[in-house]
Amino acid sequence: MSTDSPRLSAPVAGLIGVIALVAALGAGHLVAGFVGASASPFFAVGNAAIDLTPGWLKDFAVRTFGTADKAVLLTGMAVVALALAVAAGLASRRRAAPGLVFVSVVGVLGGVAVFTRPDLGQIALLAPVVSLVAGLAVFAWLHRTALDGQYSSAARRSFLIAVAGAGAAGVAGELIGTSKDAEGSRAAVGPLIPARTAPPVPAGADFAKFGTPSFLTPNADFYRIDTALVVPQVRTEDWSLRIHGMVDREITWSWSDIRNRPLVERIVTLCCVSNPVGGPYISTARFIGVDLAELLAEAGVAPGAEQVFSTSADGWTAGTPVSAMADPSVGAMLAIGMNGEPLPIEHGFPARLVVPGLYGYVSATKWVTDLEVTTWDARTPYWLQRGWAEQAPVKTQSRIDAPRGPVAAGQVRVAGIAWAQHTGIDRVEVSVDDGPWVTAELSTEVTVDAWRMWWADVPAARGSHAVRVRATDRGGYIQTDRLADVVPDGATGWHTITFTAR
């Protein structure tokens, strides 16, 4: 090619790549507003990245970023995508071909990500197709216009039109998507009045004045760990629950079917398997719903069934032992309410599973729509595919919540929580600087399926000190000091903190 052929300046070329990328993503997001939010190519690729993330990396993200892990993922994706778009633009200073190849590759990746989503139908492919066409058209148009006169008023006008159009498409897609959200449906549910209420929470159920959490966790503070990059928006009028598989009769319940059944209220502590020793991913709420044991009994569980394979509205799956769901004494629920109101959208509205005594990855499917009674060999749920354990009972554990900073020397008050679901906490002990164990005062027990608070006064001279805690459950099991990672079935070890006495 002649060296005197038209050539774009580096800033203009890079800008073309960025605008074409934004136009492609904006167009895809607009179409996704009609066919499903997770069909947006950007979100679909993000969901694919989450699904392909190995367990160790997922745990690192949760430990490092907590509930901001998804925001970090999206930000990282955006930075990488913009950098690649700039690079594609710079490679296209004379010819549009490199940039068009880049847009095509991005479009194909988005299409593959959408096609492999279990919660999307074939019509969802419209989003990545439109995204691809828009990206190619905008890149070719801007490249040709800029070559004809990159500093002309016509070129500048084309750039502004492309930017405005891409932005408008993205905003319109977001508005259309949110206009179909579940908040209005949730607001219309009205009060949920249980036929069987949970026991009242006595005044001595927590030691919040000493630094423990409140006994019941406000909905806004309840921990949230899941794989949903885009929170599913499911309306009650669109929701149903199907029980099928190894049952005597397949049954599908509508929202009104469940809403009009006698409701039960239970206080349950939920704990994430990714919670490290002393970690924050544990909370307690009053859940309102119906007994899963009753639903399964109506369907009739066939002999040989081993797991209930649950599926979320966004395609996520979990496997719960049939024994935990079908036994009325366990208290497994299809929950539709939380702390006196309908489930918050981010916590599973319209309905979720709550199975006391099991870590959430096998028991707490949010936005649940399908329950298949089957065997472990027949179906492999999401986290079991990634090396986590099949059975996941919550382990006897304890945590120190106070003190959190320097304290006055002398008697120091240490406080925290402990839990041993189905069994109950019998004793909590603390030790300072490897000294003798001191038995703590326990809060009033509300239910064995909820955490229990504790406090103890210990002597501490001036200087730095280390305090550790261990719990003993009512079955006589003393919490192990053996340190174990969260993989494959939950962390173990004594929580230890340091504090300074002055």
UniProtKB/TrEMBL annotation:
Gene3D superfamilies: 2.60.40.650, Oxidoreductase, molybdopterin-binding domain
Keyword check for DNA damage: no
Domain Oxidoreductase molybdopterin-binding: 230-380
Transmembrane segments: 12-35, 71-90, 97-116, 122-142, 154-176
Keywords: Membrane, Transmembrane, Transmembrane helix
Residue ranges of domain Moybdenum cofactor oxidoreductase dimerisation in the record: 409-483
PANTHER family: SULFITE OXIDASE, MITOCHONDRIAL, SULFITE REDUCTASE
Name of the molecule in the record: Molybdopterin-binding protein
Protein source organism: Amycolatopsis deserti
